[in-house]
Amino acid sequence: MKLLYFAPHQIWPLNTGARLRDFQLARQLAACSSVTFVEMRHPGEEPHVPPDDSGMAGIVTLEKDATYTPSKILRGLAGTTPVTVLNCWSSRSASQLANVLRSQQFDTVQIEGVHLLEYLPIIREARERPAIVVDWHNIESEMMSRYAETTGNWAKKLAAKRTAKLIQDAENRLLTSCATHTVTSQRERQMLLARRPGANIHVVPNGVDASFFSGNEIAEAYGRSGQGDSKSTILFVGSMDYHANIYAVTWFSQAAWPEIVRNHSELHFTIIGRDPAPEVRALASDRIHVTGTVDDVRPFYASAVAAVVPLRSGSGTRLKILEAMAAEVPVVSTQLGAEGIDVKDDVHLLLANSGPEIAAAVHRIVSSFETQTRLSAAARALVCRVYDWPVIGKQLHRIHADLVKSSIPSSLQMDS
To answer: DSSP letters along 158-209, please?
Structure first.
């Protein structure tokens, strides 16, 4: 089976949740089939190549035009196509994609999200008429609506509301025009089914490389790092140029952190993630550390007594929770932060929504070794059983294989 995997960003480095999901899904598919990955690169963005063991048959890079130009923003607000879709479209990229589809025959094409909607006609014109799988990393309209609810800037609020409506219209067109979809949670599946009852929508959750975050691997990475051996860190991991993460850490630092420090003067709060926004950098102090990108996050998990996910906006499922669970670091999360993951409060993690509730949950973990070990063991077991990437990859490969099989005349099908 030959697959084309089409994403609106580079596959490497793995410094965002979307890149991590796409790389791991494509890698798992490549273990069973031939996968050509078509990526998009921003103007001026450095080219990056994934490791040789990624298993891809080939990687094709399409060059994006400039994004969020005044013209695109105006067209995105005044027209019928959201700026996020306009950012990904160019006639040059369309021509390059058409050349790829002409040069090879693909059984299926997986496209990553609504932002690539305008390329569907190009894919449908491919000579072999490949089956199309649409993967929804997030329900983008929901994420934009939640941003509109939380931003205090009235101009951004109005623009976000308008953009959310346009994205939802685009999502509905995508639901109608493509037969097969994958989402990251049962909650999102039900949301899309409410829009289009009877749609063929599968749950392919976000995951984590459980072996990479095993106890032995973390211990070895920790030993190489030369860090101290005190478990005195509260950890947050995420892309720090993403509005939901920016709001999460600034809110946590005001609403929960002062109470945590009053109860536990030994603790430090460490924020890890690429391109910290100015308001994140402004949090840095002798007790709050902002690292930016790190080469290996595992040593930080080794020294963490808890990971916090104080998200109050955004959408999708959080790889940062699965990563901490795999690393056997107890998690404190808002209900929205843990949304879409099959976890139970006080079994796999602690749920808390207000600042005082989060401070109390952190205090409970820090003060109780029994709570730490019980949550960590249950969380790690769940990750290995349900959210390990090889487990998820088999689910996705089955979806593609079934589509190919259904397109073959029954007289030519072999008994399975």
So the answer is: HHHHHHHHHHHHHHHHHHHH-SEEEESSHHHHHHHHHHSTT-EEEE----B-
SS3 of residue 355 by DSSP: helix
- Residue-wise pLDDT for 137-188, tens only, equals 989 999 899 889 888 889 999 999 999 999 999 999 999 999 899 999 999 9
Pick the range with the lowest mean pLDDT from 141-155, 224-238, 335-349, 355-369.
224-238
261 token code pair: 């420090």
Residue 180 tokens, joined: 């097969």
Count of beta carbons in the 10 Å neighbourhood of residue 93: 21
The reply to whether 168 and 235 lie within a common domain is no
CA distance readout (Å), 18 to 10, 13, 127, 317: 10, 11, 30, 11
Within this chain, do residues 281 and 258 fall inside the same structural domain, yes or no? yes
- Measured between alpha carbons, how far is 164 from 188 in angstroms, rounded to an integer? 16
- The pLDDT tens digits of the residues spanning 113-123 come to 999 999 999 99
- Which two tokens mark 70? 């005044």
- H helices of 79-139, in order, are 83-86, 91-103, 120-124
**Alpha-carbon span 156 to 160, nearest angstrom:** 6
Note whether 164 and 232 are same-domain residues: no
250-297 confidence digits (pLDDT tens): 999 999 999 999 999 999 999 999 999 999 999 999 999 999 989 899
Domain count, the chain: 2
Residues 396 and 377 in one domain: no
Same-domain check for residues 85 and 95: yes
Q: What is the pTM of this model?
A: 0.87
21, 206 Cβ separation under 8 angstroms: yes
Residues 8 and 43 both lie in one domain: yes
For the chain, the C-alpha Rg in angstroms (whole number) is: 22
Is residue 377 predicted with pLDDT exceeding 70?
yes
Among 112, 64, 70, which residue's Cα sits nearest to residue 91? 64
Instruction: Tell me which residue range forms the domain holding 184.
Output: 2-207+389-412
**3-class SS of residue 219:** helix
Sign of CA dihedral 78, 122, 114, 55: negative
Residue from 325, 284, 393, 412 nearest 23 by CA? 393
Structure tokens, 207: 């995951």
333: β partners: 309, 351
Reading the block at residue 1, the tokens are 């089976």
Q: Please tell me what DSSP assigns to residue 327.
A: T
> 308 has which bridge partners?
332
pLDDT score of 412 more than 80: no
